[in-house]
Design goal:
heterodimer, A: about 425 residues, alpha+beta, three-stranded antiparallel β-sheet, 13 helices, globular, B: about 160 residues, alpha/beta, Rossmann fold, five-stranded mixed β-sheet, 6 strands
Chain lengths: ~425, ~160
């Protein structure tokens, strides 16, 4: 086909508003944009003048999916700024809580947003009729993840017990025992998830890029703190994030793009796998081998497969962390105190979609400057370059097939473009 | 409804994001109800749900009745509000609608819950027409002034029945 025009307004099953615009004239690609129409530009305005104690509670509301991720990155930024050293128990609890959110988000993406593409249904809702066991399994895993977050920090979407220096609430030993039993039982669901994704045939499309993720030096797989590591070589402290993200404006999007050592880079589950695969739990490594995922994986559709590997990792590591917490017994401890009231700090976490940075300047206990770089913003330039490489390989397909392939590509990145609002739209009969 | 042997299990669920102007109305109403209802009766659960997705189908599972408070596009003037059951109105699924797309919200959760047959027998929505859902904290005067009336009616529904 010599001429192709794709214009997808408001992609379905993507968190937020995004348009795909592709224009091919006489076989030549004239335009290939992912247009973003909404982005959290309000971040600094929202925090400026607020006491530092409020920052994690405010920023946890930015996203209904990454509430724990934003809260944790926020707390780490404040703690870096004010010289707070959280206890070992706090670190364990935060990590366990974080695993709950990764599990929750990955189950949502893999089962509810991606699987329908491969199972021939338009969304998860008809899937509930045709394959209720698949949907119930996904919901069961999501519920387990949500209950874990609730036991540790209050509601998943509103983790109120997380505070600077520690927690204001602690799970009981009974809660932990119960969760441990449920996580052990969830191993069957993990195996069934791996089996399901083994049967799904992903599009063949390779485009190597730079893969960036946080990496810790203590042998623990990703998620909270660590240095910024690139598969192109290079290690940077989180405080140097701006020299990696190098954000710049593009005319067709209100969200900034990012580039490091190439034109673009990728963050998220596949980048984490490429950077940190050696640190995965052995069970997760087995799942990766069973799904044929090997470093360095360069097919962006494999992001979902890397998420399935991380689902296995989260379940296994959650069991390990619960055992560690039970062995040491939960102490009702006061949060660690700041050593100063002014300072500047960066917090970095690997949230489900990739590396998240919060950066605060605090003076006399009040936030006077704040910056936030979200994973989807870092991936935008890379998604566009994938689209530009993919479209020429699809020109013999129908317009509808091309559109569907592009939508699937964008969905693979699990982009979270707008941040949360859930206005009900009601029609009265 | 009070039966002989047990009180109906009720969930009062606030949805919405207080960082987005009037989308925080559910939170504001819930906060007021929580303060007034101390100590909480054991058969009533108050929950600030934030902006969850499909998992709301599970959050609601097992309750006899759910009262949802959320900003809603009713096509009326800001601050107007309506109480309706799901039988009386249809919720537009954002994720399947062209024109606006947010991640799956309450409408999708209800559709999923219905497909799985796990919805509570009674779901009541208190929908409030927002003036603005821009990124800013705090409610508009129009929505703020509707709160006492809404709270009073929910209160009556919870305790006077």
């Amino acid at each position: 086909m010599a001429n192709v025009k794709v214009n997808v307004h408001h992609l379905t099953r993507v968190e937020g508003h995004g348009n795909i615009v592709v224009d091919v004239v006489n076989g030549e690609l004239k335009q290939c944009d992912l247009q973003i129409v909404e982005t959290p530009r309000f971040f600094e305005a929202m925090l400026r003048g607020k006491p530092y104690q409020n920052a994690s509670h405010i920023t946890s509301r930015i996203c209904g999916i990454c509430a724990v991720g934003h809260a944790t990155a926020s707390l780490r930024a404040t703690e870096a700024a004010l010289g707070v050293e959280p206890s070992e128990q706090t670190k364990l609890l935060r990590r366990l809580n974080f695993l709950g959110e990764i599990l929750d988000s990955h189950v949502l993406h893999a089962y509810m947003l991606v699987a329908p593409d491969f199972l021939g249904v338009p969304s998860v809702i008809p899937l509930a009729n045709t394959a209720p066991d698949v949907v119930l399994r996904a919901l069961r895993m999501k519920k387990l993840a949500g209950d874990l977050c609730q036991a540790i920090a209050g509601r998943h979407t509103h983790p109120i017990a997380m505070t600077v220096g520690g927690f204001t609430h602690f799970p009981t030993a009974n809660q932990l025992y119960e969760l441990r039993d449920r996580f052990a039982a969830a191993r069957d669901d993990v195996a069934a998830t791996a089996d399901l994704f083994q049967t799904l045939k992903l599009p063949q499309f390779e485009r190597e890029t730079e893969y960036i993720a946080l990496r810790r030096d203590d042998g623990v797989y990703g998620f909270i703190d660590g240095d910024i590591v690139s598969t192109d070589g290079g290690v940077w402290p989180a405080s140097a994030y701006q020299s990696i993200t190098n954000e710049y404006l593009v005319p067709h999007s209100s969200a900034k793009h990012a580039q490091n050592q190439r034109e673009s880079y990728m963050v998220g589950a596949l980048a984490r796998f490429n950077v940190n695969h050696d640190l995965l739990h052995p069970v997760a490594k087995e799942v990766a081998a069973g799904l044929g995922l090997k470093p360095k994986a360069t097919n962006p559709y494999l992001i979902t497969v890397a998420q399935v590997v991380e689902i296995a990792h989260c379940v296994e590591e959650a069991i390990q962390l619960i055992d560690a917490l039970l062995a040491r017994e939960i102490a009702w401890e006061e949060p660690a105190l700041p050593s100063r009231e002014s300072g500047e700090g960066v917090g970095a976490c690997e949230v489900p979609r990739g590396t998240l940075f919060h950066h605060y300047v605090i003076e006399d206990g009040q936030i006077v400057g704040a910056n936030c770089v979200i994973p989807t913003g870092q991936n935008l330039a890379n998604i566009e370059l994938d689209m530009k490489a993919l479209v020429p390989t699809l020109l013999d397909r129908t317009q509808q097939q091309i559109t569907h392939s592009l939508e699937m590509l964008v969905r693979a990145y699990d982009p979270c473009i707008s941040c949360s609002t859930h206005l009900l739209d009601v029609k009265f009969e | 409804m009070v039966t002989q042997d047990r009180l109906m299990k009720i969930l009062v669920l606030a949805l919405g994001n207080p960082l987005r102007g009037d989308d925080g109305v559910g939170c504001a109403v819930l906060a007021g109800l929580r303060e007034t209802a101390v100590p909480y009766p054991p058969h009533i659960t108050f929950l600030d749900g934030g902006t969850p997705g499909l998992e709301t189908a599970l959050t609601m599972q097992g309750y006899d009745k759910v009262i949802v408070i959320d900003a809603a596009n009713l096509g009326e003037r800001p601050g107007s509000w309506r109480r309706f059951s799901l039988a009386e109105a249809s919720l537009v699924q954002q994720a399947q609608m062209e024109g606006t797309l947010h991640d799956a919200g309450f409408a999708e959760a209800v559709a999923l819950g219905a497909a799985l047959d796990i919805l509570p027998p009674e779901i009541i929505v208190y929908g409030v027409q927002p003036e603005t859902i821009a990124w800013e904290m705090g409610l508009s005067t129009a929505v703020q002034s509707a709160i006492p009336q809404i709270s009073q009616q929910i209160w009556a529904e919870l305790f006077d029945a």
